[in-house]
Amino acid sequence: MSPYAAPLRDIRFVLDTLLEHRSLALPQYQDLSPDVIDAVLEEAGRVAGDVWAPLNQDGDRHGCRLEGGEVLTPPGFAEAYRAFVEGGWNGIGSDPEHGGQGLPEVVASAVQEMWQGANMALALCPLLTAGAVEALAQHGDEALKARYLKKLVSGEWTGTMNLTEPQAGSDLSVVRTRAVPDGAHYRLHGQKIFITWGEHDCAENIVHLVLARLPDAAEGNQGISLFLVPKRLVDAQGRLGERNDVNCVSLEHKLGIHGSPTCMLGFGERDGAIGYLVGEPGRGLAHMFTMMNAARHKVGIQGIGVAERAYQQALAYARERVQGRVPKSRGGGSATLIEHYDVRRMLLSMRARLEALRALALLSASEMDIARHAESTEARERAQQRVDLYTPIVKAFSTDQAVDIASLAVQVHGGMGYIEETGVAQHLRDARIAPIYEGTNGIQALDLVTRKLQRDRGAALNSVLDEVAACAASLADDPELAAWGRVLRDGVDDTRRALEVVLERAADAEKGHDALQALATPMLDLVGHVLCAWQMGRAALRARAALQDGHEDTAFYRAKLASAEFVLCHWLPRGRAQLAAIEAAPALFDAPL
Amino acid sequence: MSPYAAPLRDIRFVLDTLLEHRSLALPQYQDLSPDVIDAVLEEAGRVAGDVWAPLNQDGDRHGCRLEGGEVLTPPGFAEAYRAFVEGGWNGIGSDPEHGGQGLPEVVASAVQEMWQGANMALALCPLLTAGAVEALAQHGDEALKARYLKKLVSGEWTGTMNLTEPQAGSDLSVVRTRAVPDGAHYRLHGQKIFITWGEHDCAENIVHLVLARLPDAAEGNQGISLFLVPKRLVDAQGRLGERNDVNCVSLEHKLGIHGSPTCMLGFGERDGAIGYLVGEPGRGLAHMFTMMNAARHKVGIQGIGVAERAYQQALAYARERVQGRVPKSRGGGSATLIEHYDVRRMLLSMRARLEALRALALLSASEMDIARHAESTEARERAQQRVDLYTPIVKAFSTDQAVDIASLAVQVHGGMGYIEETGVAQHLRDARIAPIYEGTNGIQALDLVTRKLQRDRGAALNSVLDEVAACAASLADDPELAAWGRVLRDGVDDTRRALEVVLERAADAEKGHDALQALATPMLDLVGHVLCAWQMGRAALRARAALQDGHEDTAFYRAKLASAEFVLCHWLPRGRAQLAAIEAAPALFDAPL
């Protein structure tokens, strides 16, 4: 069993130094101080490390069981979840009006990484609940909110997203589940698959948010509505009543996240599952996207969390495992793995990328705070543009990198990494879902090049690139960092050129869609590298300043400079190489397969 | 369960068109014709696809069990292995003097890919046997050979490599197993871990090749000798006698290759396991390297095999799964996955890389044939240099790519890819061992930069690069392929520059070893990309010629040109980006971790 320690020092660096607590400057948060946030982070780290993390490997080994319609989660999960709810952690980012603690999203995101790093399978449960809270708060009527929201915010009840059906995966327009009006509510009939935490024993009720069609609904997206279907019915006083007609039919046997029950749910196998319309009829997909964007951001953070844990385990093993010898120039004695430079390269590659991805994800979270709470419309809109641009990148780029980082953690362990008892292979198995769910990474890339680049003709990206270029110029002003400034500048130029290609291709009415699909993933990868390099460029400037100011934590800032050098000089070039793929003729993909 | 069809068409293209059957030009093979080889490939493909492949997923699900000291392999494995032995497949590459069929290594390698693609877990068994055959044939005395070799070549008995101990993984110098002289033989005492097919029920005897120390042995590598330890003793007439004192203590619970029993073996728990010295005392590691180099080549091919199967499964799923719609410009109807250009990009990326890796591995195999059988010493030596240079690249680069390709195959499946029943996740789990065993890929990279580049000051690589440059020039002569010629030429230039850096760093007596370790993996990745691009450049020239000559198989050659374009224009740039990492200061890795 590997320990997990929340990366508090690096999170603080991002919040304090890189983001300068910009969320706290919003009027909404005038009563919050950095000290309070610090205390929150520390306590979350303690619960994550002491309570959640020790259950992670056992959860993988035991998995979940379906017995007589009930799902039994792994030993300790129910208690650990209860501790989380009782600690008030579920609602830390939610509106105080609904019982939440109303902390900034940037803090909630930092804490989110800790749950995901400690126990990804268990952390999926509140991740889904948060989506249900968001959809209900934004689109539910007052009666529904009064009955369900508070318990969801507290985490006493949990939430799910019921989208996928056997024929409807990435394409939800072909959802078939039916909802028939029946007095004040509806009766739902249908089957949903891949429902994360769709049934479990950790809470007394589960609130399913379900996409379904009304009887007279149009075909396609326009015919889909959103319904709330509780596992147990709730009366007007909020008391739990009998079980609704929704049941777990089977559990999936998955590559990873064994502690997270992935259910096939049957709705209406008897007389129809009672459900309540959320928002407007026919607007179900739009309403669901409210929660999906937030969930996509969180899945990106999940990738960072699980990869951070894999990194910590590899680092600990490399420090302890004696194998081989150091070169004669360093004494020739027996060496721990970490003394070998190829192993150091692997570890630095993991750490540096994690720091960069974390900085980018928290930057995006801070833009969410501004988009919600800034006083001027202009500031809110500008921030929302940034969030829209960053979200597919945070989701897809972080999770692609997470799989690679977890795989490197296995590699550092050598043969021991392949043995399940070691526990590091679990992180690779767990991480592998993140590029798939909440919209595959291919879907994210298409979202980037169409909705986020094509639609505004690159305005949002160009405005970010102006800031990246300014960072490159600042680096160039420092003789020690000038070379890094040049490579970052080159990255900006490549991205601008790639953006031109995107817009040219998009202009082709005939072939535009195919052409954009053909370059979408390389484009997301390029932009991801450049945005991460930007964050590490900024980090390098701050680290240099801190060292010049004689800051006492020299080890931290020196390590930060090493991370920045890795990202800018070793890693960024791999992303820039995508320009060739972006420019290459998309006609290639017409070729026979 | 996914079917597997050996990629016969592409293998034939490599043997016939790219390699022009150069092995058959050797006097050794004067009686062999391309037709015979064709028949061998076809029949092997049939056995692999019809007999071995259907057991693959069940083998994963059942795994192996240890009961009362006996290891039970998955249902059907023993029968499938017997069919393989009875078909004469085990010895197809072995010397006819020992009962082998004496086919060229390039043919044996092509067939090897088929077993690995059909059932990697089962194919590991003969892979290890082949190593034992090689070590015994080269280093064993006549009595040992007479007693053991024929049955190993036929596959009636299987072989193992007993290297690793708990404290001795990548560094074998600290092996502790003891061998005490006892009359004409030795008594071995010790414990070996990670012994692939160390105990099983598929053959009546197992021949362990074991590294151990004589009582008076020096410390370190020089004190290690190689011993043959049979599971059951064999008398002078070759009859099986009683069980030797070697036992399976436990089986590892692994991420993948569940059908392959990975054993902890206890030697001499009673009165000592009877063993026989192979070769000279103190030369055990050197002798073992005889089999390790061959095994490294085969593990590279194993990566190609398992990745090919993952690709086939993804391709089949993409053709069949209906999801989303084609753009309006193409009619707007409902689409199969393969009609989406992002999916086409993934599939082409898998196929193109596989074709390139296969061509490189079979090129290396053909050099093995020349190194063994060419008439002139000069030709043999030159070919051996090539084999030495290619082996770490074939092993490490193919297996790194294999993990990525298998992971992409999961991605193509979307959510279904994460469900174990689908079977595609197994390929990722299986493939993940290949970068670890037979020398981690980090060890391969270090082997490349030290023994294969530093030692001859880049002579072998430069001579290959001359050929790559000539290929680039030929491409440049064809107006249609000129752009590809330029990028290949750039790849050559980058590699020459990287080689200069390697040699400069190696010259630093103080820091040279660390500096080489720091750039070894990026260097291997760069060279791997360039060699693969070379093969696809050659393939493109042949494909163009075939199309110009009006060859009837136009679909194949057009697809080959598409693969070449992907490798040269989309993929090679990623490898070239490693030059930046190679040139960057190795001092980075001195930074605190």
Explain what the structure shows.
Two copies of one chain form a homodimer. Chain A has helices at 8-18, 34-52, 56-62, 77-86, 105-118, 120-139, 142-154, 284-320, 341-373, 377-412, 424-431, 441-454, 459-477, 482-506, 512-548, 554-576, 578-583; strands at residues 65-67, 70-72, 157-162, 178-182, 185-196, 205-213, 224-230, 232-234, 240-243, 246-251, 262-267, 273-278, 322-325, 334-336. Chain A has 593 residues and is of the alpha+beta class. The first copy, chain A, has a domain at 440-593: Four Helix Bundle (Hemerythrin (Met), subunit A) (Up-down Bundle). In chain A, strands 3, 4, 5, 6, 7, 10, 11 and 12 form an eight-stranded mixed sheet that branches. The first copy, chain A, is globular. The interface between A and B is large, with 94 and 94 residues.
